[in-house]
Amino acid sequence: MKIVSLLPSATELICGLGLLEQLVGVSHECDYPASVKELPVLTRSRIPPGLPSNEIDRLVTEQLETDIALYNLELDTLIALAPDLIVTQALCDVCAVSGSEVARALASLPGDPQVVNLEPTCLGDVLDTVTLVAEAAGCPERGRRYVAELEQRIDRVAGRSAAIAEAQKPRVAMLDWLDPLFDGGHWCPEIIELAGGVPCLGEKQTPSRRRQWSELIDAQAEVIFIALCGFDIKRSLTDVHDFFASEGFAQLWRQCQPKIYLVDGNAYFSRPGPRLVDSLEIMANALHPQKHPLPADLEAAMTFDRGTIESIKADNGRSGDTK
Fold first, then answer.
1. Which of 208, 146, 169 has the alpha carbon at shortest distance from 288?
2. Tell me, what's the pLDDT at 323?
3. What's the distance, CA 225 to chain centroid?
4. Residue pair 63/46 in contact by the 8 Å Cβ criterion
5. Out of 3.40.630.10, 3.40.50.1980, 3.40.50.1100, 3.10.129.10, which CATH number does the structure's domain 3-119 have?
6. Which positions ≥6 away from 22 have C-beta within 8 Å?
7. pLDDT for res 48
8. If both were cysteines, with which of 163, 185, 281, 308 could 208 make a disulfide (CB 3.0 to 4.6 Å apart)?
């Protein structure tokens, strides 16, 4: 069977099932595991690279409001690959090529390829997608084993968190964009709870949404967890620096001085695939390091001490004095 994935989380899932050798094409954002970067690329973004976050937000908002596609599908390449199975999504037009675009392309493809749409909004849904793809690919038993492995990891974290007193569980705000502010929706509040925190921004199984600084301040978060959608650590640090230097953050800092953590949002939290379980383990370790050991193959969330934050804020104040 020849499989095409138009979604990074689906690519990770397919490879997690041991089907890498059957994968013949991927999206331009598929980058894990690294070997998939050698495969034919079937999509490209209409958003120019290298833009600041507020400009990306403006262009995405404009294109969604005018129903202009954010991504192009490389139809000629897709036809040449002649896939038997296409794994895509209809959940978020910001994250991948739209389901309607794929539906239009089907008429041009040889044979009668099967299309599987993944639309998870919580961890349980993610586990269901493993089963769905495994069955479509003809390896249901492999899917059952993989689901059991992921469930065991989730249950281990949940069990340790259950032993933590409610008074010791910090209020946690997840942010998946900083300019403008967006909360972490869908599976993020669930992950916070399983990790031993209390979600105070974002709603379960609901898309991330824009937030005002006043909302973040009023949430009285003791911990702010930053996982910027589509950004690695290096790119995220630019936005985090601006976040610390902003007047909104100055007001937040005066009121509650939360702990700040940063993770690679491109790898964790943004993609509803198997690495959401990694995301849970990373967050649990950050919130309760004595209760939740970090697995050896994962990196701890980056944290910022008070001195670093104060230094960035002071630099911004001096820059303002010279204007």
1. 169
2. 29
3. 13
4. yes
5. 3.40.50.1980
6. 1, 2, 3, 14, 137
7. 83
8. 185
